[in-house]
Each structure stands twice: as structure tokens, then as C-alpha cells.
Amino acid sequence: MKLIKHVPGNLSHVTTFILIGVSEHPELQLPLFFIFLAIYGVTVTGNVGIITLTSIDSRLQTPMYFFLRHLAIINLGNSTIIAPQMLVNFLVEKKTISYYGCATQHGGFLVFIVAEIFMLAVMAYDRYVAICNPLLYMVVVSRKVCFLLVILTYSYSLATAVTVTSCVFSMSYCSFNVINHFYCDNVPLLVLSCSDTHMPETVVYISAATNLFVSMTIVLVSYFQIILAILRIRSAEGRWKAFSTCASHMTAVTVFYGTLLFMYLQPQSNHSLDTDKMASVFYTLVIPMLNPMIYSLRNKDVKEALKRVFDNPCQAFKNV
């Protein structure tokens, strides 16, 4: 997508940005505040619940739930880097964020969104090994391998965030400082730059395309092999049991990648910053709220662990 350049008359350096937010209509600010406060409250409750449950329950100490715990940490981080500033902006007249605050939010968002992309890929690989090589599962996805995959995911996402954020904020931002978004994102920031954006645009799009291609390839290849393995199972009960072990993850992957593909694959004639904004609401705030529900409501182990905690909370926490 070609960025529209704004050429300001006054070349004084920007020290603060103004975030337009989800909507510019004053009458919608308070209702939207309560809607997004509820979404963030459910997100925090659900993801903290998943983190706690997978940490204290002895039956959830498997690679699958180890990765689920880190997905919950990532979802919580992704929402928290966006939602508090967004909620404050619904209540104030001047929706400002400092230059360095904007850079921090931008970098934090990239850390968590890239980490989520690759954590979902890691979880798809985990399900592939569990279904296609069950006898070697605990050897292939050992505790050491689990820690290594998580460390690599976080390290790569941090390196990506530092690289892209450095490129975006190496640009000159002059007098026009209104960001058509509810947080500091790549495209609306580069639109404001009063210097040549060719290099940061290239870095942003190559990074996004590479991350999506690699992670989606891992997910698609893993699930292609999983489907073949399930079809080879003769009994209907066996097929259903195998499918149920990855149903929650398949739902989460479909929702997450479906949103990203809708955003990146729509025709340029239909593409706008407002469309990006609505898609961003979904993958920064709604998906982190939905994931704990998906893994709780569709997962027998999580529901049973939750029941054990409610039945005897003291004993559950004593086992930590």
C-alpha cells in the first residue's frame, strides 16, 4: 500500500502525538470506554486464570499447556500495551502520547504480536508431534526443547521489534502529529513522516510478510500432516479423540490468521486506515479476550482443572 505523504510547512520536531482513537464522535466516547473496559477486564481475568491454572495444576504440566501458558502471557501483554492508554483517551479531551511513549508502545506491540504469531506456530508443531509421533512425543518435545522454543520466540520477537521500531522512529516527524489510530502503529506513523519513508516501509513490509509466511507455513504443514494422520485412524472414536486434542488450537489459529489475512489480502481499492483500525481492534483486544474462552470451553482438561481449583482451592495452591 502506497503511503500518502504529508508535507508540513513548519519543520519543528514533534515531541507528542495525538491519537484519534477508535471513533471521533464525542457521544460515543463514554459507551466505548465501558465496552473496552469490559473487554480488557475479561482479557485480564481469562489470561491470568489460564496462567495460574497451568502453573498450579499437576495434570497440566505438559508441553501443550506450557505453550498455552506463554500464549496467555503474550495475549495479556499485547492487550496491556494498548488498552490502558486507549481507555484513558476515551475520557480526556486531548488524546496525546509522548514521542518516547509512542515508540515504547510501538515496540511493545511488535514484541507481543510477533511472539503470538510464532507461539501459535510452535503450538501447531507440538500438536503435530503429539498426533503423528505419539510414542516419541516426550522425547521430541522435551522440557529442554520447550524452553528453547519459547526463548527463541521471545528473542526473535524482541529483535524484530527493536529493528522495525528503530527504522520507523529514525524518520523525521514534523509539525503534523495526528495519528489516525488508537495506538502507535507502523502505517499511520509513516504517513506522518516528513522524510523519505522508502527504507522503513521496505523493512516493515518485508518483516510482516516474512513472519506471516514462515509461521503460516509451519501451521499449514503441521495441520496437513495432522489431518492425514487422523484420516488414517480406523475407528470414529479414535479420530474424534485425536481431533479434540487440537480443536482449541485450530479455532484460535483460524480466528487469528483469518483476521490478519483479511487485513493484508483485501484489494487496495477497499483498503484504508479505518479498515486497519477495525482489524487492529480485533487482534489486539478481542482475540486476547477470546483465546482463554476457546481453550477453556473446548478443552476437557482445563475445565476439569478449573473444577478442582473451585472444589478445593487451598489444596490446589498448596501443590505449587
Automatic annotation (TrEMBL):
It comes from the Eukaryota. Residues 46-295 form the G-protein coupled receptors family 1 profile domain. The keyword Oxidoreductase does not apply. The keyword Cell membrane applies. GO terms for molecular function: G protein-coupled receptor activity; olfactory receptor activity. One of its GO terms (cellular component) is plasma membrane. Belongs to the G-protein coupled receptor 1 family. This is Olfactory receptor. It comes from Sarcophilus harrisii.
